[in-house]
Amino acid sequence: MSQHLDELLEFHWMMDMLQTVDVGIVVLDRDFTVKVWNGFMESHSGLLPSDVRDKSLFSLFPSIKQDWFMKKAKPVFDLKTRAFMTWEQRPYLFKFPNYRPITGSESFMYQNLTLSPLTSATGKVDYISMMIYDMTDVAVGKKQLEALQVTMSEAQEAKNRFS
Q1: The domain spanning residue 77 has which CATH number?
Q2: Does any domain span residue 144?
Q3: TM spans, by residue (predicted)?
Q4: Residue 94 sits in which domain range?
Q5: Per DSSP, what are the bridge partners of residue 128?
Q6: In this structure, what DSSP letter does residue 121 have?
Q7: I want to staple 39 with a disulfide (CB 3.0 to 4.6 A). Which of 19, 34, 82, 100 is the partner?
Q8: What is the reported pTM?
């Protein structure tokens, strides 16, 4: 096989992996225009890649606070550093419905996000990737544990009052 064919085959399986991984992957340019929208994002948003490609993230999702998000992304573009957002800080960026039957107590998907610079061959960052992780199971578990701790603490206080 030729090297060109090998590279084409490698590109194909890499794109397949990008589409099927259980993590949302979005690539944005400096104008926050969507360039890549993977299968996770498609299945949770109901929007096809062709629906979102070359459109502004903020026009597609007006609930995203533009000033806040741009401030969060600026060091990713300018300093080539990663930025993180956890569900404890902000429950979600994209208000996707919770589709998991086990954690059906929550109506939306809790999310962690990672913004990463995508450096070109020239060393310039014209694009960033956004990875969206479903943290609903973790969030529900933590909330249940906290509720149990409150209940146990209240029970201990009541026991101490009547002892």
Answers
A1: 3.30.450.20
A2: no
A3: none
A4: 3-136
A5: 28, 117
A6: T
A7: 19
A8: 0.79
163, part of any domain: no
Tell me the helix, strand and coil percentages in the chain, rounded to 5: 45, 20, 35
Question: Considering its fold, how many domains does the chain have in total?
Answer: 1
Q: Which of 31, 34, 32, 28 is nearest to 48 (CA)?
A: 34
Q: Are 131 and 117 in contact (CB under 8 A)?
A: no
pLDDT in tens, the chain (163 residues): 687 777 766 655 666 666 667 899 999 999 999 999 999 999 999 999 999 999 999 999 999 999 999 999 999 999 999 999 999 999 999 999 887 655 457 788 999 999 999 999 899 999 999 999 999 888 887 877 877 777 777 777 777 777 6
